[in-house]
Amino acid sequence: MFEKRITIFRLLGFEVRVDPSWLILAILITWTLAEGVFPSRYGGLSATAYWWMGAAGALGLFASIVFHELCHSLVARAYGITMKGITLFIFGGVAEMEQEPESPKAEFLMAIVGPLSSAFLSAICYAIAALGVTSGWPVQVTGILYYLALINALLAVFNLLPGFPLDGGRVLRSALWAVKGNLRAATRIASQIGAGMGTLIFVLGILNVLGGKNIVGGIWWILIGMFLRNASRTSYQQVLARKAFEGESVRRFMEAEPVTVPASITVASLVEDYIYRHHFKMFPVVQEGRLAGCVSTSEVKEVPRERWDRVTVGDIAHVCTADNTVGADEDAMRAIAMMTRTGSSRLLVVDGDRLVGIVSLKDMLKFLALKLDLEGEE
Known about the structure:
The protein is of the alpha/beta class. 60% of the residues lie in helices and 14% in strands.
């Protein structure tokens, strides 16, 4: 998720990003409001007016979700939790944390502020809309405000459902954590409840579709149920990984004597003697003891087969970047996050312009599996 997100602006030090899937939601909401909701409630307006109202409603929802996630982020930052930013996607928004809260209190306050912020926005929008009606404001304005009051109230209620990773699920996890004194055990229970709720929502969606009365709504229920079920499981796995790699550096998992290729060999030699032999998709290129770049199967595929004997590795190698290099003393979870974000299974471990090793996702996952097998998930 979030592999092609776009940063649109910064707010109070946080990057606000949009996943392309958000555009689908924005279009659907605008169309639903312009063609269904507003015409049914406020008749007699032009089609242009309804579409402007639909666009404004979608923009208002965008701002509401950003405000909701910003409140999460501000509380998290107050408790020393590093935030990657805020990302909007088809099912809403998420404030991305780099680590788990340090205490049940921090978890509770960070979670509960989300629904409270949405409830606050709902009350404000409703009050302004009511004032607008008594003051004779255009129905286009008051209609949008009433819609935002309703949608924020729904956001507050939905997020209070006790299914992790929803805000209500995080509140539940904070309570279980306080009682059990164990974050992993609390996360496991909250995630199981979240997965169960996702399954229930999914089944209700199926029944709606089969009933034929609310097919579009049923499809949304199905999608939300699937998302909640998968998100619950993924969030639990992330907690297990963070705890397993807690305090571990990249140095522990790196291969200190990795396979390297010289810049002078041909692409044909690279394929036959390295790629087919070692089965790696990316190799570091070393020249005179220094890291000269990287070469991967992607670059090889761009060279016509008949030219493999004439083109050298140095001709196609690319400069190593922050996306495929990491320091030996970096946190292991940061390396995993980089691999997940870039889709790469290997990172070069560097010290300045020297290659000191290679760390692979496969080796790190083996360590995770062994640690969980020996120590359990409690």
